[in-house]
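Lecture 7 notes: from sequence to structure.
We start with the chain below.
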Amino acid sequence: MQRAEVALKRIGEVLEAEETIQSPTKSAERPKSGDLEVRHLCFRYPPSNGIDGQRRDALCDVSLMARVGECVALVGRIGCGKSTLIKALLRMVEVPEGAVFYGGIDVHSLDLSILRRFVAHVPQDDFLFSTSVHKNLTLACKDIRADQVAEAAKIAAVDREIESFPLGYHTRLGERGLTVSGGQRQRLSLARALLRPSPVLLLDDCLAAVDAETAAHILRTLRERRDTTCVIAAHRLQSIRHADRIYVLERGAIVQTGTHQELSQTPGLYRDLWEQQCLELE
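Predicted structure tokens for the same chain:
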């Protein structure tokens, strides 16, 4: 009864919370393309509990572009603003008007339900439910075929492990994916996102528990999906070296842009991080 009382109190707090981010009164239509553009985005977290927020912007004059079929990476040290930028692209934090566009349409002009369906998001610690693998993967899909589920699992490089489970796709998972490894949980979450008919895919360091070779293979496979715009935030550079374009963030600002080959040969933060991570692997 004590546990139930605490849980009920928390549920009540969620239900009574005021929505700070609202849909527009009149929404624009769904964007025609998955082109993503960020224009001079600045963002600072608001003060909370009477304590002043950060003295500096969490994001400072960020501009980037990701076309349909491109795979773009966001990298940098911990706390540089990668996750905040992903939240801004989802409008999970309030961003200024004229800063984030999908298919040329400002996110402030889109109903939140349209935006959430238009963009598939995989956080670093996604949630798996205590039900079968198949039901977890098809959570946001209706009338999905078995071959489509298998194809998504193959792209996420988790198909062989699923097939090795006692009941395959009908194997029941523990709450929060307790019965699978961290890497398997992340790849199952990725496969679930791939089954959604969303033109834009945002990955927030969701392959951190996957080995570098497998993560790089997944990224190469995602690049072959020419109808999808992919933005991946990552800490480990080995996994994103095949990205079409890499944006390097430091203290909320983009300090370098280029391919892995270009950045690894240019003095700067990216080369420092690359050399450091290469030494750690030796």
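Points to note: The first helix runs from residue 2 to 16. DSSP finds ten helices and ten strands in the chain.
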